[in-house]
Specification:
By secondary structure, the protein is mainly alpha-helical. It is built from 10 helices and 3 strands; from the N terminus they run H-E-E-E-H-H-H-H-H-H-H-H-H. The longest helix is centred in the middle third of the chain and has 39 residues, at 113-151.
Length: 262
């Protein structure tokens, strides 16, 4: 596979608003398999890091760097100081899903029966059980709050000086129980879900997590505005194209004047 073929695959997975280049360095690197140069919009791949039978890993690296490019496209050609933020991981994971669906990239985690078995144990023995424990803690704290009210005591003082746990953690655990969150997503994702006030959005986020979406993908999906009306989209595109045409006409006039002066 050469660099032109890699670029073609990336565009097949998802088109890019801005052009970019894929460059094979022809070198090995002990530090990274690839990098993205935002100024020149270049995806640099250290192709000698990959053996001929590691094409899938090469594609994975290319998709990772392509995610940086698409992230930059969404920021008018720039990247935030912290490139690997939630927004980036959301873009990257979405690209991987598309690449798997289109047969460009193969998810290898299911290739090992031993790893598949261990994954099931981790989900059931640790994520689900720990999530269930935190949810049960929330239920107990709600009862403790009621008992404190009956005594005329401050519940926050009980949390601070008797249980000696952070108030924020206690409140989150209580919400986990009140919102009837599914412990299968694990305690960390339950904490994230407990922070979503809108019930419809919370249920949609929980469903997405249970269906295998990454937490970063779910976070980014929550940020997206509702689908825009097709007419509004076309009107915005017309305005954008009109501005581009005006700019090109102006530049054409300048070029013609310069040619006459030569």
């Amino acid at each position: 596979m050469n660099q032109d073929q890699v670029k073609k695959l990336l565009l097949f997975v998802e088109d890019a608003p801005m052009d970019f280049s894929v460059i094979f360095s022809g070198k090995k690197s002990k530090k990274v398999n690839g990098l993205y140069k935002v100024e020149s919009r270049e995806i640099l791949l250290h192709n000698r890091n990959f053996s001929p039978d590691e094409e899938n890993l090469l594609i994975y690296t290319a998709i990772h760097e392509y995610a940086h490019h698409l992230h930059a496209c969404s920021k008018k050609g720039t990247l935030p100081q912290r490139a690997h933020n939630h927004e980036f991981w959301g873009i990257f994971h979405a690209l991987l899903e598309k690449a798997e669906t289109k047969g460009v990239y193969r998810n290898i985690f299911s290739d090992s029966p031993e790893l598949t078995k261990l994954t099931g144990e981790i989900r059931e023995k640790f994520l689900a059980q720990n999530g269930g424990l935190v949810k049960a803690l929330g239920q107990a704290l709600i009862k403790a709050n009621e008992l404190c009210d009956a005594l005329g005591a401050r519940f926050d003082d009980y949390i601070d000086r008797v249980l000696c746990i952070p108030r924020a953690a206690a409140r989150v655990a209580m919400k986990m129980f009140q919102y009837k969150l599914n412990p299968q997503v694990g305690p960390d994702n339950m904490k994230f879900l407990a922070g979503i006030k809108d019930e419809e959005k919370r249920l949609a986020a929980e469903h997405a997590l249970l269906s295998g979406k990454s937490p970063d993908s779910v976070r980014e999906a929550l940020k997206k505005p509702p689908d825009e009306d097709p007419r509004d989209q076309l009107e915005k595109e017309r305005a954008r194209l009109t501005r581009t045409i005006d700019t090109l006409k102006k530049r054409l006039g300048e070029v013609e004047r310069e040619l006459k002066e030569l």
